[in-house]
Design brief:
The protein is mainly α. Helix content is 53%, strand content 10%. The strands form three sheets. A two-stranded antiparallel sheet has the order 1-6. The two termini are 12 Å apart.
Length: 205
């Protein structure tokens, strides 16, 4: 059992609500535009320059401590270069098919990329998606941008980033290389566990 203080529980509750809102907006935008990730692609997970905050990976850290995997991943992350691709990316080298190994607990940056928008220098919202999706679905990509131009609701990366910071500035403002953010999240929850002196892995989960 992991005992969290009231402030952290409140932050996690708000984060859960924010993720739910993002999920609803993303799914609606995908449904209307027809855009989808290419099955087994994982190109975005291959990138090594992705940055994230500690806050967005706290749910993952809690899950790792609960199922007894936190120390395993801490050891891996301590020796893994911080600019490496995500430690949770899984790829079958024979089939070249990849995917997320912690999908329900992925960070906000992972949830946003591909089906969101950012304002350009003139304040006009521009679709943020990957080259693989653009190449495979040029017509749907154009349709998605048309929807945005005509005011259809789309997750705006900067807006969600601001909401994340507002939840908990101490944990949501600073951004780190992805693996470092994950490691810091695991260490943060581990520190809370140590302070409380009450922890027993839920090995039966």
């Amino acid at each position: 059992m992991i005992i969290l203080n009231r402030e952290l529980k409140k932050s996690l509750s708000k984060l859960k609500t924010l993720y739910a809102l993002l999920e609803r907006q993303t799914e609606k935008f995908k449904k209307i535009s027809g855009l989808e990730c290419i099955q087994g692609c994982g190109i975005c997970c291959e990138k090594d320059e992705i940055e994230a905050s500690v806050l967005e990976f706290l749910p993952l850290a809690i899950e790792l401590w609960k199922n007894g995997e936190a120390l395993i991943y801490l050891e891996i992350l301590l020796y893994l270069p911080e600019d490496s691709r995500c430690v949770f990316y899984r790829k079958n080298e024979e089939t070249n098919i990849g995917g997320c190994g912690c999908y329900p607990y992925r960070g906000m940056i992972c949830r946003l990329f591909g089906f969101s928008a950012l304002p350009d220098k003139n304040g006009k919202l521009r679709l943020v998606t990957c080259n693989a999706i653009k190449s495979a679905n040029p017509d749907k990509t154009a349709k998605a941008q048309d929807l945005i131009d005509n005011g259809f609701p789309v997750p705006v990366m900067s807006s969600f980033a601001n909401e994340l910071v507002n939840i908990n500035p101490a944990l949501g403002f600073a951004r780190y290389p992805l693996n470092q953010a994950i490691r810091l999240a695991i260490e943060y929850i581990g520190f809370i566990i140590e302070l409380n002196g009450k922890y027993k892995p839920d090995m039966g989960k």
